[in-house]
Amino acid sequence: MEHNLGCVTQIPLGEGRNFVVDGVEVAVFHTRKGVYATQAECPHRRGPLADGLLGGTTVVCPFHAWKFDLTTGQPLMGQCAIQTYPARLSEAGEVLLTFDSQGPLPCPIPQGEEIGAGQAAVGSAVGPARVA
Q1: For each of the chain's 132 residues, which pLDDT tens digit applies?
Q2: Residue 109 contacts residue 63 (beta carbons within 8 Å)
Q3: Predicted pLDDT at 123
Q4: Is 71 within a domain?
Q5: How many domains would you assign to the chain?
Q6: Which of 17, 43, 89, 92 is deepest in the core (most CB within 10 A)?
Q7: DSSP SS3 for 4
Q8: CA distances (Å), 78 to each of 45, 81, 91, in order?
Q9: Is 57 among the domain residues?
Q10: CATH number at residue 49
């Protein structure tokens, strides 16, 4: 089912924001190439992906630097993929998300040494927008 999340201007270029769609929190990212949507939390330690560092079509988790491709959800640094959802911009500049109620992909928490270093706080502390 396609959901209208509102005007893309609520997500500054180069940032992400969380939305709740059908009871599931989803991160939506606004890049120069368009909009992308993923599960809201990093599979590693539940870091808020919408607050991560965005570069092209990749996002870096602000907790331990796990890096994901926004187009496929595949890890570029880290051990687990993330769930992605089809998203696009309408001609009116609204974010349209096709959502099938699929939650985050399962991922065992890695044992041993942490991947990445430090804790970076990037983005906004704004809570998720709710969409009916």
Answers
A1: 899 999 999 999 999 999 999 999 999 999 999 999 999 999 988 899 999 999 999 999 999 899 999 999 999 987 899 999 999 999 999 999 998 776 666 676 554 445 444 444 444 444 555 554
A2: no
A3: 47
A4: yes
A5: 1
A6: 43
A7: strand
A8: 11, 8, 36
A9: yes
A10: 2.102.10.10
The pTM of this model reads 0.80
Pick from 32, 38, 28, 33: which is nearest to 7 by CA? 28
Whole-number Å distance between alpha carbons of 60 and 102 = 22
Range of the domain at 51: 2-99
User: Residue 125 falls within a domain, yes or no?
Assistant: no
DSSP string, the chain: -EEEEEEGGGS-TTEEEEEEETTEEEEEEEETTEEEEEESB-TTT--BGGGSEEETTEEE-TTT--EEETTT--EEESS----EE-EEE-TTSEEEEE-----PPP-PPPPSSPSS-S----S--PPPEEE-
